[in-house]
């Protein structure tokens, strides 16, 4: 069952009922000011950091769900309704929410009044614009009262929901004309404030939540709205809000437009205050002036749309498969950009006060957006590398505002260092910019300890080389990619919960997954060393890779699939010998995509085992059989009920690893089958089961052991976005950046047909026509570049604006 449809032409998902199974959200903002907005106008806004500079309040896990947002109440006689349905939930005569790229639109109507609400964050300013248009479709004049509403958050979102003894006494506001200023904490010289304004005169206002709502009332029935009149309250402590009241008369057929602006203003540090508490309003006036008229707003929206169009044009496919086209051309790339902006901080599942930027998360996210924003990817790599320790290990997380490593969490996740090689290699293959490798980058943000980026990568590699266990496989540390596989927590902290994690190192527990990573990224490191002219270093890396490859074959193979790990006692994890958790997905996907066991015929066996033991109609589960009891020696993974999260859930992130692995062995049918099982455009058909947004990936889908098999959670902020994009764009459609040009090597299902790719790469627009006359799954017979047949399948880098390529598969 669907709750809407894709409008590919407008690059929108159109939701046709407000009662979606879960709130379906969108993100506004692309630089510093961000908003989350749901299909019923729920959500919140923040500036740069969702924890420290939260503008509006949002209560997670609230009842009813998703209440709290930017609301417009329309009072028409005795009827009060909202264009986004919530919070009054008055049945609407029509409703539609269109989530587009960086904007959302609502169109609804009630009793012959039409409302159209456009919400977006303009590109260059720190504000959200809400343009509301009301039209009288009846043949009588209508008297309406419009009430706006936002509830301020007292900046630090964490403190805001717990430190009530203080924060119920700090709220301060000021009203001037149609502008409501939120000044809480300004007197402490925090030097920033927020505004909520409208481009029309107002007939009243409220700034105290309790006066606006009335005692014991919710957002669904504010007393002010019910009585048709704001109270003119001035908040003093408690909960400040901003509400404008506007009385409107609409003649038959008449439309009126209101531009509301929620803005963040920060005065430069050097600016002196004359009197604490008196705000400098000049910047607010300036900002408001830029969005006074419809023309200004429309222009800002057009700029935003042009920005997205241009950005996404860097990779486009035109095939006979609409679902692939819409995912590749619009939604998958869009989600990759959202993970760039948000990492894992703010979604409807991440509260914005929890995690900072993850080291491994950010490195992997980069694989999905490096072709879109290479300059910002470069900065990101330097930021990430700056948090690395001198021994090559890494802070697991860092703070987006300070860009410093988070010492509460610390290091010890032994996969982290290798992801730095992964993202740097992707950046250099995309851009050819080797200058990044010689750039001096600090360790632990300390410039007294600094070295060229290439040296950081060397320390990453050496970290694995110098941290191996009894079988010559990498030590796992606290965990590897699978955060919940805590193999060292039992040995030194018996009885303690996984939450404390284990010690950062244990001399025995080893990870076959990290071994797979080492083989893949060790080779990519060797290629970078070669680019730098250091052939000895490349040879050293390759010989270490060969050693690791053999260690996997000798000690990481279980007979029908790759083992997952050895625990702190040296016992196998992910083996047929285990009572539960006999096969895990990660080493099957990653070892094979790294090329391990392909020539020995083991790769094919491993993939067959995945299909037999882990596959479901909703995707491939992370492990089987699910753990039915808690295993202290395995940690958090066994804390989940069977079928959820890391305990046998379908972790969407590593499904593409298996799909890529299938392309490595040339199985286009199976690669595509895996791709389509978790692909939003396919999943849309059964949204009532899947429940999260059908236009983006979720982190996890409940596995076969769970009562709610097929139900997804944790949409938007997941490494799945990047890896599925890598899979479809580079392996299935097969256009892969290399150091010497674009390799074209598709691996498609039978019947996929011919297709075209448009790719902007190193200053050139490549127009690539792929023909598949004999309907093969893999294999390139001929590549013709600007009329000339080339040798091999790497389209060379040229100094021309446009290059036309014809590729014949066969
Ligand atoms: C989750 C993991 C996540 C980790 C982050 C765990 O509870 O299951 O998916 O990576 O928390 O710290
Ligand atoms: C989510 C985390 O963000 C990611 O870093 C981790 O790899 C997966 N969960 C698997 O545990």
UniProtKB/TrEMBL annotation:
<feature type="domain" description="Glycosyl hydrolase 94 catalytic">
    <location>
        <begin position="307"/>
        <end position="734"/>
    </location>
</feature>
<feature type="domain" description="Glycosyl hydrolase 94 supersandwich">
    <location>
        <begin position="12"/>
        <end position="293"/>
    </location>
</feature>
<dbReference type="GO" id="GO:0005975">
    <property type="term" value="P:carbohydrate metabolic process"/>
</dbReference>
<dbReference type="GO" id="GO:0030246">
    <property type="term" value="F:carbohydrate binding"/>
</dbReference>
<dbReference type="InterPro" id="IPR011013">
    <property type="entry name" value="Gal_mutarotase_sf_dom"/>
</dbReference>
<dbReference type="InterPro" id="IPR008928">
    <property type="entry name" value="6-hairpin_glycosidase_sf"/>
</dbReference>
<dbReference type="GO" id="GO:0016757">
    <property type="term" value="F:glycosyltransferase activity"/>
</dbReference>
<dbReference type="InterPro" id="IPR010383">
    <property type="entry name" value="Glyco_hydrolase_94_b-supersand"/>
</dbReference>
<protein>
    <submittedName>
        <fullName>Glycosyl transferase</fullName>
    </submittedName>
</protein>
<dbReference type="Pfam" id="PF17167">
    <property type="entry name" value="Glyco_hydro_94"/>
</dbReference>
<dbReference type="InterPro" id="IPR012341">
    <property type="entry name" value="6hp_glycosidase-like_sf"/>
</dbReference>
<dbReference type="InterPro" id="IPR037825">
    <property type="entry name" value="GH94N_CBP"/>
</dbReference>
<dbReference type="InterPro" id="IPR037018">
    <property type="entry name" value="GH65_N"/>
</dbReference>
<keyword id="KW-0328">Glycosyltransferase</keyword>
<keyword id="KW-0808">Transferase</keyword>
<dbReference type="InterPro" id="IPR052047">
    <property type="entry name" value="GH94_Enzymes"/>
</dbReference>
<dbReference type="Pfam" id="PF06165">
    <property type="entry name" value="GH94_b-supersand"/>
</dbReference>
<dbReference type="InterPro" id="IPR033432">
    <property type="entry name" value="GH94_catalytic"/>
</dbReference>
């Amino acid at each position: 069952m669907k709750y809407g449809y894709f409008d590919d032409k407008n690059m929108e998902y159109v939701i046709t009922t407000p009662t979606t199974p879960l709130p379906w959200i969108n993100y506004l903002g692309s630089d510093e000011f961000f908003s989350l907005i749901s299909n019923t106008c729920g959500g919140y806004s923040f500036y740069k950091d969702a924890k420290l500079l939260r503008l509006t309040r949002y209560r997670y896990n609230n009842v009813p769900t998703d209440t709290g947002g930017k609301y417009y109440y329309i009072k028409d006689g005795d009827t009060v309704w909202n264009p986004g349905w919530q919070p009054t939930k008055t049945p609407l005569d029509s409703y539609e929410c269109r989530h587009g790229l960086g904007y959302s639109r609502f169109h609804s109507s009630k009793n012959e009044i039409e409302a159209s609400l456009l919400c977006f964050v303009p590109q260059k300013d720190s504000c959200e614009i809400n343009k509301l248009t009301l039209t009288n479709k009846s043949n009588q004049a209508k008297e309406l009262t419009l009430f706006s509403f936002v509830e301020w958050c007292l900046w630090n979102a964490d403190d805001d929901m717990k430190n009530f003894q203080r924060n119920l006494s700090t709220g301060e506001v000021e009203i001037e004309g149609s502008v409501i200023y939120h000044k809480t904490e300004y007197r402490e010289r925090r030097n920033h404030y927020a505004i909520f304004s409208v481009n029309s005169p107002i007939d009243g206002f409220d700034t105290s939540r309790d006066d606006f709502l009335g005692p014991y009332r919710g957002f669904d029935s504010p007393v002010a709205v019910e009585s048709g009149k704001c109270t003119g309250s001035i908040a003093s402590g408690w909960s400040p809000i901003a509400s404008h009241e506007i009385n409107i008369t609409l003649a038959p057929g008449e439309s009126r437009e209101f531009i509301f602006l929620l803005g963040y203003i920060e005065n430069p540090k050097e600016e002196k205050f004359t009197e604490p508490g008196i705000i400098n309003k000049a910047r607010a006036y300036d900002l408001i002036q830029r969005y006074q008229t419809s023309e200004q707003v429309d222009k800002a929206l057009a700029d935003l749309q042009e920005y997205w169009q241009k950005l996404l044009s860097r990779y486009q496919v035109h095939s006979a498969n609409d679902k692939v086209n819409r995912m590749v051309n619009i939604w998958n790339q869009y989600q990759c950009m959202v993970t760039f902006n948000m990492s894992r901080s703010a979604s409807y599942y991440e509260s914005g006060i929890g995690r900072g930027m993850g080291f491994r998360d950010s490195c992997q996210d980069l694989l999905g957006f490096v072709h879109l924003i290479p300059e910002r990817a470069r900065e990101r790599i330097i930021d990430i590398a700056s948090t690395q320790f001198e021994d090559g290990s890494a802070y697991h997380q860092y703070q987006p505002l300070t860009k410093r490593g988070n010492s509460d969490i610390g290091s010890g996740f032994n996969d982290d260092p290798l992801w730095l090689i992964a993202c740097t290699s992707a950046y250099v293959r995309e851009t050819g910019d080797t200058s990044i490798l010689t750039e001096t980058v600090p360790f632990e943000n300390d410039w007294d300890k600094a070295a060229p980026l290439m040296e950081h990568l060397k320390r990453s590699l050496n970290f694995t080389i110098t941290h191996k266990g009894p079988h010559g496989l990498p030590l796992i540390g606290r965990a590897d990619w699978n955060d919940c596989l805590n193999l060292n927590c039992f040995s030194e902290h018996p009885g303690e919960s996984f939450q404390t994690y284990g010690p950062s190192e244990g001399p025995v527990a080893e990870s076959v997954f990290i071994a797979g990573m080492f083989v893949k990224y060790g080779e990519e490191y060797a290629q970078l060393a070669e680019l730098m002219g250091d052939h000895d270093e490349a040879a050293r890396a390759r010989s270490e890779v060969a050693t690791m490859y053999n260690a996997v074959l000798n000690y990481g193979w279980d007979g029908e699939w790759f083992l997952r790990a050895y625990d702190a006692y040296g016992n196998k994890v992910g083996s047929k010998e285990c009572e539960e958790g006999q096969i895990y997905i990660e080493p099957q996907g990653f070892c094979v995509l790294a090329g391990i066991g392909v020539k020995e015929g083991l790769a094919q066996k491993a993939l067959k085992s995945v299909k037999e033991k882990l596959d479901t109609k909703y995707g491939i589960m992370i492990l089987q059989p699910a753990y039915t009891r808690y295993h202290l020696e395995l940690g958090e993974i066994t804390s989940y009920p069977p079928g959820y999260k890391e305990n046998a859930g379908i972790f969407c992130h590593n499904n593409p690893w298996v799909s890529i692995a299938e392309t490595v062995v040339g199985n286009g049918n199976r690669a595509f089958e895996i791709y389509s099982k978790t692909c939003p455009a396919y999943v849309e058909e059964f949204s009532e089961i899947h429940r999260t947004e059908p236009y983006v990936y979720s982190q996890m889908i409940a596995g076969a052991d769970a009562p709610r098999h097929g139900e997804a959670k944790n949409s938007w902020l997941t490494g799945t976005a990047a890896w599925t994009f890598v899979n479809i764009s580079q392996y299935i459609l097969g256009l892969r950046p290399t150091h010497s040009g674009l390799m074209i090597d598709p691996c498609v299902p039978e019947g996929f047909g011919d297709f075209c790719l448009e790719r902007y790469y190193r200053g050139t627009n490549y127009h690539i026509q792929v023909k598949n006359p004999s309907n093969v799954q893999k294999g390139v017979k001929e590549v013709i570049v600007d009329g000339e047949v080339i040798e091999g399948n790497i389209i060379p880098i040229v100094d021309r604006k446009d290059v036309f390529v014809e590729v014949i598969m066969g």
